[in-house]
């Protein structure tokens, strides 16, 4: 009788261990993802319609910078007169990524020597149409680029 | 007094309103020709849409005569004394139009931007030269622009609007019997419609693609000479022209009388390029001339293609990784962005091929391979992220099973105890 | 032992103020009848568990979701890709929603066939019927919120059906859409319903439903010679632990589904794009959708679609009044025609759903 009871007890002890251990682990497995979910991610905003293209000091007049806009490339340029402009950096000819050429103040595609002026208009070479233009805002030191709403 | 003023102003406004709208105000030409047969009345109707009429010109501006007289006797107004010139002969059409269109002073009144050298250019064209020799079948101004319903070039209904140009030229040039005496091909339109340019212009109605006139010239329509083909193509494909000019092909083609770009890309039937054109296989364009496997050009062709292929391969590997991760729901925007940069280098090489410089191609290929490497790396990282999810799932499954097992035992235990009672 | 004392003190303190002992006694005395249909008793609890999952994950999603046509899709994409475990939370929310609708259906039909709605549980049934409608409402409004192509067009078609109703159809359409077209205004409306109106309503009715269930206890099936009742099982802890076991397994299934088959986001809705082929509503609406498609253009004097809507409306109203229609159940007798109609409805729903996916 004595023996049986102690056996019983150890069996119940084991079950209770399983229950408390399993319960605690599950609670952890539920609470941990929830807490991580609550912590805001590094990028505080959904990124599809606006993106920080760079800082003011990164783009002196007559220069340009490629930035990432989702999975596409964008180009931020500052015209020789100091104005900010941003375009899709995807060349309208064969979708290469364009760049800014300070020597001629053109946006230029290296693949087939296509030229666009600082307004994104195709002016020479094979590009059939202008680059898609984005809207540029300056927020403090940051330059924010947004898709134009049609 | 005020009432009179008002009346004057109103009258003046009325005059303005009438004056701004072109109207046939009692015009002998119109009144008579409208009453004649169908053909003549159609001319009157057509002319109302004509740009010349829209800009205030009338029948007599070209044909002379006096439309203000002759209501009783039409021959009065159609009298050479009244400056009547009538219908020009085919051979006279260019001069006929040129009376105004070659006159700088006159044209400036209407459109200062409009060129005035059309007649001069036309004289240099094949059409113009044949016309001077007395051939009446060749195209003159009206063959392309129409006669009494001449629309501005910018009007989509105009026969010389970009998209309509190939059809307009084809009216004669695709006509076998019409072209027969000239002994020139008549399949240009058919070939052009299948070409990459024709596809874009005719099917997509995208005006950025060239029509006939963009290579052959507008009024000075002449086939480009053998050595001028690169210049014609280079108008748009300037990069490839420059690269071609710097390549050994430039001199070699000239010596052998090969038509530059058209040697590989054909003319009229300029198809969308493919990498299969390159290298040393049977169907490549290189192998048309370079079939000696010992020769240097043969080896260069082989190596150029190999460089391009290896870059494309490593991009494909990277792309597969990225797509796999994307399908699994991992954010791959950055990797795709980087992948696009690597793809640029493929396009750069496809252009650089024209230089035949293995060195330059190899340099870009290496750059591209490095970029593709980076993407492959981020693809692998993305997939690792996915693996983590699986590990997490496995972990939580173990925990849940342990708990479930514990609960099951507990239930058994409880049940057996309640039965004991 | 000190801790035990302390706990007892707290318990006493609470009991003096809230009658905790009574609640405890209620739980301890509650029993569950044991027979071969006992398994159906778990469905209510399972639905409640899935509903709780919905509330928790729903609140989490609310922290990042933005209800506007410009940002809804992007914010869900953001949750899925940028927020840690966002993919998990959103996938669980979607999967749990579908499983919950499924258990709601099962719960409804099991109660129907076991005739658990008979006196004195009429109100329990009626509150349950309303909970069923609200669940469908949750599904319909929630489906649009990610603002993807499929949801957009499914909502367009779904709300169009409301417009067919005579007299009030036009108003109803405008009311649902917040305008003449499915637009950003529809999205904010659906959002308001999904996170405010429906949760509030569901909470009130659910409290009533659960109170009635506790008050009347578990219903026993009608006297049936084939049923051999076993001794009743104590609700606490025996039955409750079984419930917990079920929930634990359900959680495991949810996590597995969410990890292995993450809920797809699809493409962003574009109101100007042509409708994609094969638009289907969520699976639980397919049987209605398919029926409407099968109906001829004209039935008697009215439009086919209208007749279909009328049919389902009548069906739903009849559903509410089931306890009063089945008079035999109150006498403890199973009504043959009633059971037959029940099976016909089940067969109809199954066949129409199947056809909806096969055709």
Mean pLDDT across the residues of chain A is 84
How is the largest sheet of chain C built, in terms of strand order?
1-2
Q: What's the level 1 CATH class of chain C?
A: Mainly Alpha
Would you identify the regions of chain C where 5 or more consecutive residues have pLDDT less than 50?
none
Task: Provide the gyration radius of chain A in Å.
Answer: 29 Å
Domain count of chain C: the total is 1
Main sheet makeup of chain C = 2 strands, antiparallel
> Could you tell me the strand content of chain C as a percent range?
under 5%
Terminus-to-terminus distance of chain A: 85 Å
CATH fold group of the largest domain in chain A: Rieske Iron-sulfur Protein
Strand content of chain A: 25-35%
Main β-sheet description of chain A: 6 strands, antiparallel
**Shape of chain C from CA axes?**
globular
CATH architecture classification of the largest domain in chain A: 3-layer Sandwich
**Tally of discrete structural domains of chain A:** 2
CATH fold call of chain C: Cytochrome Bc1 Complex, Chain C
Structural features, described:
The complex is a heterotrimer of chains A (150), B (421) and C (359). Chain A has one helix and ten strands, in the order H-E-E-E-E-E-E-E-E-E-E. With 150 residues, chain A is α+β, with helices and mostly antiparallel strands. A six-stranded antiparallel β-sheet of chain A has the order 1-10-9-4-3-2, with no helix packed on it. The model of chain A has no long low-confidence stretch (mean pLDDT 84). Among the domains of chain B are: 87 residues, no CATH class; 125 residues, Butyryl-CoA Dehydrogenase, subunit A, domain 3, CATH 1.20.140. Chain B is built from 23 helices and no strands. In chain B, helix 2 crosses helix 3 and helix 22 packs antiparallel against helix 23. The radius of gyration of chain B is 36 Å and the shape is elongated. The mean pLDDT of chain B is 86. Chain C has 15 helices and four strands. A two-stranded antiparallel ribbon of chain C has the order 1-2. In chain C, strands 3-4 form a two-stranded antiparallel sheet. In chain C, helix 3 packs antiparallel against helix 5 and helix 11 crosses helix 15. At the A-C interface, helix 1 of A face helix 4 and helix 5 of C.
